[in-house]
Specification:
This protein is α/β, with parallel strands linked by helices. The protein is built from 16 helices and 14 strands. The longest helix is centred in the last third of the chain and has 22 residues. The chain is globular.
């Protein structure tokens, strides 16, 4: 079986999907699926990834093709359009990541024209929060004239949580649906490097109780709540320090810094920027508690990574992973409404109760290692592709 994955950008500046897709490809290689990737050279506004264009680049067991973007908005790439028109028939299935993008529209159109089944992976873009809070009018018009047809003709929809599926189906996404939680390489988190790597890089955190937020800095992440929550809790826990790990749009981050200063937190926050590799793993090792207070997350990769690290985690119902975890077992996560008072009460409880932290951390680590693995994701996704191809045979497709 040969599958092409398409995504508008692999830049880390865009957060979750850019990290998800390489892991998905790795999971499929583990279960014997041949995969390629097609994307643009986008590396955020005004930036490009310095890679050869239009030719196969060997990655970790798969081939990657990069194409020049002509525009920032919608990431139009004429060379991608020409390539997909010529090569889409080389694949049994096309897996298209994200919507409201030129690569999505182009790949779906050419796949349908050539009779190649395609799967849409919305990555939370069809969630209510995103549809209502991000370019609402423009999305409404685009959805009416483009995306609704793309979803209607999809062979399947691939969601990472049941909450994401419910919200997407309110938009009319009624194709065959598969809910496949995102997997991680749990072994990577079993033996974390020491906290020293993080503490040597950020010495102001030495001797402090660290509350870690690690994710893209974005309005949907609930940082406007986390800052006053921490200001409240710090009064009772004066040695606590908030670590905000991640990057985001400069104007938004500047606003957060202003809010922190107004709350008197300037000396009690470490702004690390984007962390990866040993720096990220060491941040998990150094932390006492992990907090992800998002209003909306189609899954929550950072949360499952924190779980795999054995951290006690505090989150909100808007993070879809919370529902998936609670459906499997209690006493794994603390989940409270996205409001200052309940978040502050829960964080205060965690910081004041070492036994509770140990219990939640141990339960979280065990669940992540057993149920949110790369192999489980790859096996489920291969099964979805096989079902799609079987339906084509039964239905008389080519």
């Amino acid at each position: 079986m040969k599958v092409l994955h398409v995504i508008p950008s692999l830049s880390p500046k865009h957060g979750g999907p850019s990290f998800c897709v390489p892991v998905i490809l790795h999971s499929l290689r583990q279960v014997g699926v041949t995969v390629d990737l097609a994307t643009t050279d986008d590396d955020g506004p005004g930036c490009r990834i310095n890679v050869p264009l239009g030719q196969r680049i060997e990655r970790d067991g798969y081939g990657a093709f990069y194409f020049r973007k002509q525009t920032e908005f919608y990431k139009i790439s004429l060379s991608f359009n020409r390539w997909i028109a010529k090569h889409v028939s080389d694949y049994d299935v096309v897996c298209i990541h994200a919507v409201f993008s030129f690569t999505t529209t182009s790949a779906a159109w050419h796949a349908r024209r050539r009779g190649v089944p395609y799967v849409i992976v919305p990555h939370g873009i069809l969630n209510c929060w995103g549809m209502e809070n991000r370019r609402r009018l423009l999305k409404s018009l685009s959805f009416r004239f483009l995306e609704s047809s793309i979803l209607r003709h999809a062979a399947a929809m691939y969601y990472t949580s049941h909450a994401e599926r419910r919200e997407a189906e309110q938009t009319g996404a009624t194709a065959l649906a598969a809910v496949i939680p995102h997997g991680i390489n749990a072994a990577e988190f079993q033996n974390l490097p020491g906290a020293e790597i993080f503490l040597n890089r950020f010495p102001q955190a030495k001797g402090r109780i660290l509350v870690l937020f690690l994710s893209r800095l974005d309005a949907k992440k609930g940082l406007d709540l986390l800052l006053p929550v921490f200001a409240n809790v710090r009064r009772k826990h004066p040695t606590a320090m908030l670590v905000i790990a991640g990057n985001g749009e400069e104007s938004y981050v500047a606003g957060l810094r202003d809010q922190a200063t107004q709350l008197g937190l300037a000396g009690d926050i470490v702004w690390t920027g984007f962390l990866s590799g040993a720096d990220k793993l060491s941040a998990f090792a150094a932390a006492t508690v992990f907090v992800l207070p998002s209003y909306s997350e189609n899954f929550g990769i950072a949360l499952v990574e924190a779980m795999a690290s054995g951290l006690p985690c505090l989150t909100t119902p808007g993070v879809a992973l919370a529902e998936e975890v609670q459906a499997r077992a209690a006493d794994v996560l603390m989940v409270v409404p996205p409001e200052v008072r309940p978040l502050a009460a829960a964080l205060d409880q965690l910081l004041g109760d070492a036994a509770l932290r140990a219990q939640l951390g141990a339960n979280a680590k065990r669940m992540a290692a057993e149920q949110f693995t790369v192999l489980a994701m790859g096996t489920a996704l291969r099964k979805l592709y096989e079902e799609i191809l079987q339906r084509r045979i039964v239905g008389g497709g080519k």
